[in-house]
Amino acid sequence: MAEVATARRSRITPEREAELYAAVLDLLREVGYDALTMDAVAARTRSSKATLYRQWGGKAQLVVKALRHNKPVKNLDEIDTGSLRGDFHALLARADDTEMEQSGALMRGLATAIHANPDLHSEFRSQIIEPEIADSRRVLQRAVDRGEIRADCPALDFVVHMMLGAFVTCALVDERPPTAAFLTSYIDAVVLPALGVPTE
Fold it and tell me: What is the pLDDT of residue 2?
């Protein structure tokens, strides 16, 4: 039975999977998480609801997978410039401001739903937050190994908090979406000095 299920799952091509994720994110922007249904996803993507459940298990898993797929960089190990500042700047150079604005709006819209839905919270934590923390730790450890950051620097534990905070609160404080230029300036003015890393 497991072999049959695996065979069925493998029929979804990467292109079809990307198409499904894009449709899920479009629906999420249109109606929000609580009003998004698997029936609506099935109708929008001309899929059967059974296929969606078989492939993703449920709404929370599907939404979080779509969010993860939408990230401009799936793994920070793809970027290694030889310096922490270079790594951060290279990461942001891959970001598209329009996509960043859409992602910021999605995250703000999902904030309440994440706290109100244990399944969504669990999936978001395991698929988005924990990988982000692990990626960040590897990038920072490289900087420690190169001697850029002291191993006992207290700011090391708060880099993810700083980055997510800037991304999420930019629209709230400045009434504009985050941009690569804003986050690059923030990194140079706040994150790197907190870590004791030169910005020139």
Answer: 40
